[in-house]
Here is the input.
Amino acid sequence: MSFEKAVEAIIREAMQRGEFDDLPGKGKPLDLTDYFNTPEEVRAAHSILKNAGMVPREVELLKEIAELKQVESALREEKKRFEIRKEIGKKQIEFNLMMERNHKKK
Here is the structure.
């Protein structure tokens, strides 16, 4: 039996057992826009990192900025709000610099 046929048999058996019934996005079309917008030479690396739960620093910064903004909006003490705004500013500058470097590379 060829490798492809063996894999197909394993998949078919799993389908019959219902192992794919509760997958997220079942019955919905795949959105491959991000995949095809990624340069071909880095697609594999991005896929591996994404599947491993790793995200680019830019994405982490955007999440951190959003979280800090939520914290700031909940604070009453002006001194603490000022400190949070400073931290947001630092992260925003780091993000902008990274984006500028990426833009220059293209």
